[in-house]
Amino acid sequence: MMVGAMVAALWGIGMAMGAPRQARWVMIGILMVAVIALHLILPNGHPLRAATGGDARLWLMLIAGAGLVWGYGKVLGRLRKRADAQAAPAAKPGTFSATELDRYARHIILREIGGPGQKALKEAKVLVIGAGGLGAPALQYLAAAGVGTIGVVDDDVVENANLQRQVIHRDASIGEAKVQSAAAAMVAQNPFVVVRPYHRRLDAEIAGALFAEYDLILDGTDNFATRYLVNATAVEQKKPLIAAALTQWEGQISVYDPNTAGPCYRCIFPDAPDQALVPSCAEAGVVGPLPGVVGSMMALEAVKVITGAGDSLRGRLLIYDALYAETRVIGAKARADCPDCGGRGLREA
Known about the structure:
The protein is an alpha/beta fold. About 50% of the residues lie in helices and about 15% in strands. The protein has an eight-stranded mixed sheet, with helices on both faces. It is elongated.
C-alpha cells in the first residue's frame, strides 16, 4: 500500500507539473529500482522491508508481468496496424475503392466538386511548409479531404507548449519530430493518402527541387526569411501559393498566384517589418483555436484551387479578428517593381 501510494503521488505530481508521460514512467521506474535495492540491502525482518512487501521477488514478478503485458500490447498494436493496412482495398490508379467513395461522398454530391473534383484532389500533390499552429489543421483537413500526396517540411520537434494549439500532435509525441508525428496522425486518419515528411529546415539549397515535385504550396511558417524564400521559389516555378500568418487574436490569409492574376506575397509585403513589431507566438501569445480557424481556411482554399470551385482569395487578403469577431477582405494588386514577380500578375489580369 505504501509503494502504491508513492506511485500514485509521483504520477499526480508529474501531471500537475506538466511532465510528459514518458518522464512520469521513468520516475516510477526509479522508485521501483530503489524499493528492490532496499530489499536486497536490508536484512530480513527490517521494518522498511516489511512495509514495502517483505520480499524483492514480489516486485520482480510484478515488474516482469507488467513488462509482458506492455510487450504484448505493442506486438498486438503492430499486428493490428499491419492487418488494417492489408485489409484496406487497393484501388486502381485514377479510380476510387468502395471505401473511398463512401468516405468522400459528401464532397462528391457537392455540385462544385463532384466526382471530377474529388479525382483532382486524389491526383493533387500539395506541399505544406510548417507542421505547427497553421500547418496542423491544414494537414489534417488536406488528408481528410483526400489529397493524394501531401509533403510536410519542418525541422522542429513536438514540445509540451505546442499542444495548446497544434492539435495534430499528442502528449505522447513530445520529443518526436513534428513531421513524423503529423504524418502518423494523417495516415491513421486516412490510409488512402501518401504523406512525405521532410525533417529539415527549408532553405534555398533544396527549395527548388522540392517545389518541383508539387502542384500547390501552403506556407504556415512564422518568419519572414522563409516566407520570402517560399514566395520567390513559387513564383519562379509558377506554383500557386497559399500563405497565412497569425498573432495573438488575429490571422490573415491569401492566395498568391501572379501567373494567373493578382499579386505575389512580396507585392503585398515588400519588406520585412521590424522584429519588435511582429513578436513570435512565444513572445506575444496566441489564442489556441485561432490557428485552427486560419489553418482550416488554408485547407479550404487549397481544395478550391485544386477543384476550381468558387472564387479563391487570389488578389484578396482576408483578415480575421477573433477577439471582436470581425472579418475584413482587402483588395490586393501586383506591383510592377516587385523584385520577385515583376508585376506578372498585372499582365495576366
